């Protein structure tokens, strides 16, 4: 039940109680008045009866009219009082009234007969009347007494009823107070405790009052308020913690920013202290950042002068990217890229491009590291050349012996040919032998040139087995007779992209070291095989990349090496040989050469157990260069009618080349040097179709002749030289479809085919 309903009921009860009390008091007062009136009437009747006793005696004694009228008056008065009492007081004892009335009637009848009685009879009746009057008076007293007792009972009853009503009202009030205490006081205490808890910050307090009245509503509202306050407090506490945490984070961030700022300064200082070129480039090759080393390489005072420009314009004086650009390769492949480039001022740069990834695997920028290795390469080349010349000195006797054999064969066949000519006998067999001997001499010369590094690096696809086989004749003359040399070749081809001269130098150095490790002779094995390195092997050993490798293995039965020696074996100038017998650069040169081929070297050795050196070269895919036999002289050779300017300072070679060309229909204009070639060009420029220029000539060399003629009019050109074709690209002559290279010695067949290929469609004689 709701408190409002309960309070309304309580108020109604109190009102009704007060109304009941008032009504009770009014009823009591009315009853009291009624009883009082009855009592007064009864007293009047009793008094009248008392007076009537005296009057009756007088009347009976006198018997006068006056007395009679007075008597009847008294009787009427008594009768009226009886009637009034009977009419107005319904609660009066009827028997007493009836008794009084009967006595009154009896007395009246006696008085009516009194006149006929004698005095004596009257005296007798007086006693009867007195008796009746006394009885009537006593009845009147009884009536008064009855009324009094009745009034007294009414008083007692009303008093008892008043006490009962008061007790009931008090009990009811006490009940209501107890009920209200239970219904109101308890919840009020819970609410008071709740407000006290809230005042102390205990917002988790709940009244837990489950009621449907106003206190229940108030409790629910209080609990909701407490919950809201708790949530707000939690939120506020959370915000405080968040603010505190944010302050701590901001402080940490400030510290980290300061650290980053210091690290950035240190990093920039470190980067600027690096002498190499460091640049950050975007996809368009625009420089976004550069270190001080990059500025110094361009003789600039600040790296800011580089930012916003393009690398190919700064270092290469070009309007477009270079043909070999590791940055573009890095953007394309998303992997690190390396390249060696030559600038127009003759410097050599080793470049390395490292990708910087953004979201996912997208390359956003590239860091390019450039190192000027011009001096290093020159010193390295000088060192390598010195080592090779030392090796060539060791082979000089054997090479001279081979050349003497070749010259003896040529001389012998020439003399026999002259004798046969006088006799008119066929000469073709002797001429073929002479050509074969010349080819042997040319091959030996090419081998010596390549090995001595007179030719620059020329990377090509070779079979490692063929490279080792082609070097066997040099090794046979290098290795002492007390050493047993053995070859074990892989059954499959081992294609590798290498510079032949460098690999032969590697073999030479390793074989020389192996021979020096066997002063009393022993066994030397050269082996080739293929292996595959997976990612796990690479990760475990920490060198190389996953993939297929061609392996060159050189094993000796020499004295071996201890661990300390193995740890320093690749250090420059480190040697275990006695003074004057070694420079200590052999294995360091091997290490550098193999590294340039993206390979690696492993050495296994123990004292007294010999040494095994394994050279790992990445396997390549493509068509392997193989030795090709020249077509027989009898084959159909191409002819032509074009005009050719031939510049060669060697007269014998010039005449031989000119005779070959003229024999097959070409018009040849000969020049003995560069200046004469320019003069002949000026005279015949309108009729010329092709230039054949020797690269090395007195006064003006072939490159200068080519550039001057090209500035006037571009011509198809064949460059001839005993050096590698790469030397021309390094000196500013790119080899294209218009500029072709032909290596000396030149056979007539090769010359005619190359000329026809350059000029166009091959014509039959």
């Amino acid at each position: 039940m709701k408190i409002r309903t309960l309070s309304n009921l309580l108020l109604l009860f109190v009102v009704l109680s007060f109304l009941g009390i008032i009504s009770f008091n009014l009823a009591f007062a009315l009853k009291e008045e009624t009883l009082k009136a009855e009592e007064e009437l009864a007293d009047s009747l009793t008094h009248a009866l008392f007076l009537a006793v005296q009057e009756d005696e007088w009347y009976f004694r006198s018997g006068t009219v006056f007395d009679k009228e007075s008597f009847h008056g008294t009787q009427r008065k008594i009768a009226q009082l009886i009637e009034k009492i009977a009419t107005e007081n319904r609660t009066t004892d009827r028997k007493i009234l009836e008794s009084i009335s009967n006595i009154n009637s009896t007395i009246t009848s006696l008085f009516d007969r009194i006149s006929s009685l004698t005095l004596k009879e009257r005296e007798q009746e007086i006693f009867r009347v007195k008796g009746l009057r006394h009885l009537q008076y006593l009845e009147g007293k009884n009536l008064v007494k009855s009324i009094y007792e009745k009034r007294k009972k009414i008083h007692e009853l009303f008093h008892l009823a008043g006490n009962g009503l008061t007790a009931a009202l008090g009990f009811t009030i006490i009940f209501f107070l107890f009920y209200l205490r239970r219904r109101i006081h308890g919840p009020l205490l819970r609410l008071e405790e709740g407000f006290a808890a809230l005042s102390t910050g205990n917002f988790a307090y709940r009244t837990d009052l489950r009621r449907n009245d106003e206190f229940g509503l108030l409790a629910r509202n209080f609990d909701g308020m407490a919950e809201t306050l708790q949530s707000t407090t939690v939120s506020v506490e959370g915000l405080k913690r968040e603010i505190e945490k944010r302050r701590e984070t901001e402080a940490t961030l400030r510290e980290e920013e300061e650290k980053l700022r210091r690290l950035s300064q240190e990093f920039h200082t470190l980067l600027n202290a690096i002498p190499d070129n460091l640049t950050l480039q975007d996809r368009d090759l625009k420089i976004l950042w550069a270190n001080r080393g990059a500025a110094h390489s361009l003789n600039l005072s600040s790296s800011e002068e580089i930012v916003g420009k393009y690398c190919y314009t700064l270092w290469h004086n070009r309007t477009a990217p270079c043909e070999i650009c590791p940055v573009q390769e890095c953007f394309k492949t998303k992997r690190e890229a390396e390249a060696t480039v030559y600038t127009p001022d003759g410097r050599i740069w080793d470049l390395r491009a490292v990708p910087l990834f953004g979201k996912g695997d997208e390359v956003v920028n590239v860091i390019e590291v450039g190192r000027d290795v011009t001096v290093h390469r020159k010193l390295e080349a000088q060192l390598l050349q010195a080592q090779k010349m030392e090796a060539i000195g060791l082979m000089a006797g054997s090479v001279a012996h081979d050349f003497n054999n070749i010259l003896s064969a040529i001389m012998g066949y020439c003399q026999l040919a002259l004798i046969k000519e006088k006799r008119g006998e066929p000469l073709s067999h002797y001429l073929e032998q002479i050509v074969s001997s010349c080819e042997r001499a040319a091959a030996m010369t090419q081998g010596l040139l390549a090995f001595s590094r007179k030719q620059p690096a020329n990377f090509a696809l070779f079979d490692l087995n063929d490279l080792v086989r082609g070097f066997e004749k040099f090794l046979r003359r290098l290795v002492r007779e007390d050493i047993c040399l053995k070859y074990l070749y892989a059954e499959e081809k081992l294609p590798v992209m290498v510079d032949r001269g460098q690999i032969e130098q590697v073999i030479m150095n390793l074989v020389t070291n192996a021979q020096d490790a066997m002063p009393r002779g022993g066994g030397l094995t050269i082996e080739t095989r293929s292996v595959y390195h997976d990612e796990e092997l690479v990760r475990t050993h920490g060198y190389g990349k996953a993939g297929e490798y061609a392996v060159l293995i050189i094993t000796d039965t020499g004295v071996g090496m201890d661990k300390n020696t193995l740890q320093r074996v690749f250090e420059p100038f480190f040697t275990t040989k006695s003074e004057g017998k070694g420079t200590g650069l052999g294995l360091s040169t091997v290490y550098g050469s193999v590294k340039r081929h993206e390979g690696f070297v492993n050495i296994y050795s123990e004292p007294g157990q010999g040494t095994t050196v394994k050279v790992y070269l990445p396997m390549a895919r493509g068509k392997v260069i193989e030795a090709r036999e020249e077509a027989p002289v009898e084959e159909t050779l191409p002819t032509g009618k074009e005009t050719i300017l031939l510049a060669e300072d060697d007269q014998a070679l010039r005449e031989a080349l000119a005779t070959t060309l003229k024999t097959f229909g070409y018009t040849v204009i000969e020049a003995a040097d560069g200046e004469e070639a320019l003069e002949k060009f000026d005279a015949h420029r309108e009729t010329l179709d092709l230039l054949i220029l020797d690269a090395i000539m007195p006064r003006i060399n072939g490159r200068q002749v080519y550039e001057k003629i090209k500035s006037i009019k571009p011509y198809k050109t064949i460059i001839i030289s005993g050096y590698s074709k790469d030397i021309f690209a390094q000196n500013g002559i790119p080899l294209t479809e218009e500029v072709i290279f032909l290596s000396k010695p030149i056979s007539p067949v090769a010359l005619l085919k190359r000329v026809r290929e350059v000029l166009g469609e091959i014509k039959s004689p």
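The CA atoms of residues 97 and 529 lie 161 Å apart. The first helix runs from residue 3 to 62.
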